[in-house]
Amino acid sequence: MVELMLYIAISSVIILVISFFLVTLLQTRAKSQTIVEVEEQGFAAMNTITQILRNAKNIQSPATSTSASLLIIDVADVNKNPTRIEILNNAISLKEGTANTVVLTNPKVTASNLSFLNASGASPRGSVKIIFTLTYLNASNNNEFNWSKNFYGSATLR
């Protein structure tokens, strides 16, 4: 009888340790997926913005040495003028000419603090510094889904 109680006690401890390990493993996996989602969305959005800027012909807004949350540029394809990049409905959006607005980030993240600094100065080629923040949308308010990151980039017109 004592052996049975000892066996049950040891088994219970082992099951408890394994359960705790599995819960921790699942939380770590969720946190990793959250971080990867924010990172991928941020890098993709920044790459798209900088590529469009590099191929732009002119920066309409913001004016030289000023910053704004809206970027308006002229591109080589007149049908895509003006090209606008801004935050709409918590997402970074791109509108080229009269075409429909394209969202650069998915609904799993919210975008904020988008800022474009026209750092052209006296240079004939325009230069823009870009800053934005992406935050994982945490509807359940669980700690493993709390993640936010600031993204920084710059591009010079060719």
Structure description:
It is a single chain. By secondary structure, the chain is of the alpha+beta class. It has one domain (2-156). It has one helix at 2-54; strands spanning 56-61, 67-68, 71-75, 83-88, 91-96, 102-103, 109-118, 127-136, 148-156. The strands form 2 sheets. The chain has a 5-stranded antiparallel beta sheet with strand order 1-3-4-5-6, covered by helices on one side. Strands 2-7-8-9 form a 4-stranded antiparallel beta sheet, with helices on one face. A hairpin with an 8-residue loop joins strand 7 and strand 8.
* Total count of domains: 1
Write down the overall geometry: rod-shaped
The arrangement of helices and strands along the chain is HEEEEEEEEE
Instruction: Report how far apart the termini are.
Output: 84 Å
Work out the helix count: 1
- Strand sequence of the main sheet, in spatial order? 1-3-4-5-6
**Share of helix among residues?**
25-40%
Q: In terms of per-residue confidence, which ranges show pLDDT below 50 for 5 or more consecutive residues? A: none
What about the largest sheet?
5 strands, antiparallel
- Tell me the radius of gyration: 24 Å
